[in-house]
Amino acid sequence: MNLGRVVTWLRGLSAVAAVLLLLGLGAAGALLYWYFSSREAPEPVAASGELALPRGTRSVALYFAAPSGDSLVTEQRQVLENDRVTETVRTLVDELVRGPTAGGRPVFQPGVTVRHVFLDESGDLYIDFSPELVRRFHGGSTEEYLLLASLVRTLAGELPTVDGIIITVNGQPISTLAGHFSLEAPLATSEWR
Questions:
Q1: Distance separating alpha carbons of residues 134 and 147, to the nearest angstrom
Q2: Chain centroid to CA 130: how far?
Q3: Are 183 and 175 in contact (CB under 8 A)?
Q4: pTM (whole model) above 0.85
Q5: What is the spatial distance between Cα 180 and Cα 144, in angstroms, rounded to a whole number?
Q6: Rounded to an integer, what distance in angstroms lies between the CA atom of residue 153 and that of residue 150?
Q7: I want to staple 118 with a disulfide (CB 3.0 to 4.6 A). Which of 12, 74, 126, 171 is the partner?
Q8: 116 vs 136: CA distance, rounded Å
Q9: What is the spatial distance between Cα 80 and Cα 58, in angstroms, rounded to a whole number?
Q10: Helices 141-158 and 85-98, packing angle to 10 deg
Q11: Smallest Cα–Cα separation from 53: which of 62, 61, 44?
Q12: DSSP type of residue 54
């Protein structure tokens, strides 16, 4: 074998490798350009200068105690949409615990959380709360009524297939929140509207 032929062959191979390398780099650059140029644009800015609402939000009606403390008032709020009942319940209860932003008084104490949610085939919604629901509740019959009515009206308004709400705490049934309203049977949504 001739050394000159080997050198010529290696030079030819180097040229082919260089061409392939350049083609690969060009393809990678084109792919990166396509990837970054096809990404979604950021959310548009509304004419007023405020950011437009992100996609997937919806308006919900939340019920809070009136400033007088003797009835309920509604407040519209934007929340992220979710097609799962469990996440919808968690979101709505979190918003009730957060309290009103446009007047009114909160009905839930800070720290109350939803532990588990289950909707059975008969339309009863089971909500298992953290122990703070009972521990942090301070009030009489009016406050107890307002808390239960706030919960039932908010959930029934956003989940129309729910017929009754069953409240448990820390995985255990409770007979009442503070002694004024029975929780031994489901809270019928039709009776609390």
A1: 12
A2: 18
A3: yes
A4: no
A5: 7
A6: 5
A7: 126
A8: 19
A9: 6
A10: 140
A11: 44
A12: P
Angle, alpha carbons 56-62-68 (nearest 5°): 155
Residue 77 sits at φ, ψ, to 5 deg, of -145, 150
Question: Which one-letter amino acid corresponds to residue 76?
Answer: Q
Q: How many CA atoms lie within 13 A of 58 on its CB side?
A: 10
Handedness of CA 87, 91, 93, 94 (dihedral sign): positive
Instruction: Specify burial of residue 131 (Cβ count, 10 A radius: 0-12, 13-18, 19+).
Output: middle
> What confidence tier does 83 reach under pLDDT thresholds 50, 70, 90?
confident
Structure tokens at 185: 């049977």
Residues 128-187: tens digit of each pLDDT: 999 999 999 988 999 999 999 999 999 999 999 999 999 999 999 999 999 999 999 999
Q: In Å, how far are 102, 143, 184 from 70, measured between CA atoms? A: 17, 8, 25
